[in-house]
Amino acid sequence: MAAHVPPAPGLPQMLKTGMKFFSGLQETLFSNLTACKALVRTLRTCYGPMGHNKLVVNHLGKSFHTSQAATVLRELELENPVACLLRTAAEAQEEETGDGTNFVILLAGALLENAEKLLRSGVPLVHVRAGYEMACKEALRLLPGLVCHILKRPRDVDEVMWVLQTTVGSKVFGHQKFLSRLVARACVSVTPQAGTAFDPDSIRICKVPGGGVADSRILEGMVICTEAEGVVKRVERAHIAAYSCPFGPSGLEAKNSAVFQNAAQMKDFGGGEEKLMERHLQAIVTSGVNTVVVGGKLDDMALFYANKYRIMVVRLRSRAELQSLCRAVGATLQHSLAPPPPEAIGHCRRVYMSEIGSTAVVVFSQDGAACPVATLVLRGATPEMLDCLEEAVHDGISVYQILGSDPRLLPGSGATEMALSVRLSTLGMYYPGSEQYGILEFSQALKTLPATLAENAGLPVNEVMAKMEVQHQLGTQNTGIKLVAEEADTINATKEGLLDPFLVKYRAITLATQVTVTLLGVSEIMVAKKSGGPKPRGENPNWDKEPDMLE
After folding, report:
1. Backbone phi, then psi, for 203, in 5-degree steps?
2. Which residues pair with 526 in a beta bridge?
3. Is the dihedral of CA 154, 157, 160, 164 positive or negative?
4. End-to-end alpha-carbon separation of the chain, Å?
């Protein structure tokens, strides 16, 4: 008979059966760093404009073909606690700035890997954490001195386009000039007057398959991928009423039966409902409305009378689109089928149904008049291409938004990371104390970012990094990597228009350091048993018991 092995004395003996307990550097940090390194290796090839795409299939069977780290992390089902904390930091970066998620993952992964080397060499954990914190504070102090440009005219399309090229090009390299101009025009057209903040929801995206990227365009108004419901397909000088309720006669909530004594009663019953619906439509027409936008169910009887009175009817299945349309035309959403008051009626120069490629769309166009909403019509050969274009547009809009609060820009193409690395290595060499090892490893971690750019571009990494470091030691802090080249070469990132927002780099360095210091401060990990039903029955007679419960 097998002997029962009791749990080890101490905290594990007090925990519930099935709960896992880890302690010590080997179990809490070193063993979990393997998962962290695997995550970093996965996302390393996505970094930069030459990054590779990932094909991710989630638990619902939906596939994602993207190079955006935020999308990959969102769809991965991670269980390792260290990897989950890294994903949390990347999600915080995405929520705050809309860009730089891969920067956070790669920098935090490099810091953890370098910390493992120091800890295995015998450097105390306290000194490693202190060195990282000192290096982060010094990097943030040096960062304002590296600013090379300030966005002075946020309403100038050419200047905004020049600033957004790097962000947009990191997702769709080769189309960055055309697409960044579209995004700049859209942002400038909906930017309110001074004193009010820019709202990124004012820019709508309509993805239409077919054509090429060069066929994309901007429209001051709304483009909706749907069809007009009735026979009226075009209205000039439209007066619009928007309803969130069903457009038709209201029915009873409870099931009921109507009993008729004769045919006359049945005829009167149906006729009364029709007369009531006609009176509703007459009242709407009398109020001056000639276009109705419906967010609920559309009744056939209501559509018949709408066609009779020449009212254009458009049905939207998304409440967010309905709210955006109300903002674009100045309408107030109605919650009951009643004629809207004059102040609740929206106005539009033209509402018409058209086709883009083979996709039917309804266009609400202001024809050059001021409009608080703009629509970017994106064209692409495949759904995956359209998704990449959408991600690039979202990143460009997010960068324009944060430039409204901090217009400073830093040199891109790895120039900022190399400049900080050179200065921190100088500080680490002359700093007295064991913290210098943490500072030097922080400096080496920053070098992994431009090295990844060169590696993804197919350049000789050692040669490129040596040239960059020499230039930065000579004082040219704007020197970056020339990615579109067959040989290792450097460029002036500022003159080439390769710029990164100051706030994105500032928050990314801060978050990467904070998550690294947090993980290094973990001394014990306790994982509870997963909740859920019993395991599926198998050949094992003890299929419903944990392995440590068997004798």
Report:
1. -110, 115
2. 21
3. positive
4. 8
* Other beta carbons within 10 Å of 198: 19
**What are 529-551's pLDDT values in tens digits?**
666 555 555 556 565 555 544 44
Classified as helix, coil or strand, 338 is coil
Classify residue 448 as left (phi > 0), alpha (psi -120 to 50) or beta. alpha
In sequence order, what DSSP letters do the residues of 427-448 get, joined into one string? Answer: HHHH--STHHHHHHHHHHHHHH
β-bridge mates for residue 217, sequence order? 377
Asked if 36 and 112 count as a contact pair (C-beta separation under 8 A), the reply is yes
Residue 16: pLDDT band (50, 70, 90) is low
Q: For strand 203-209 and strand 221-224, is the pairing parallel, antiparallel, or unpaired? A: unpaired
- Which pair of structure tokens corresponds to residue 53? 């795409």
Nearest to 288 by CA among 337, 221, 232, 241: 241
The dihedral region occupied by 247, where left means phi > 0, alpha psi between -120 and 50, and beta the remainder, is beta
Q: SS3 of 336, please? A: coil
**Burial class of residue 550 in the structure, from the number of CB atoms within 10 Å of its CB (0-12 exposed, 13-18 middle, 19+ buried):** exposed
Amino acid symbol at 49: P
Could you list the beta-strand ranges (E) of 217-301. Answer: 217-219, 221-224, 234-243, 291-294
Distances in Å between the Cα of 463 and the Cα atoms of 411, 468, 481 are: 21, 9, 11
How far apart (Å, rounded) are the C-alpha atoms in residues 276 and 280?
6
Q: Is residue 111 exposed (0-12), middle (13-18) or buried (19+ Cβ within 10 Å)? A: buried
pLDDT per residue as tens digits for the range 179-206: 999 999 888 888 877 656 788 888 888 8
Q: What is the token pair recorded at 108? A: 């935090």
d(C-alpha 249, C-alpha 252), whole Å? 10
Q: DSSP 3-state assignment of 329?
A: helix
Say which amino acid occupies 149: H
Structure tokens at 474: 């000579």
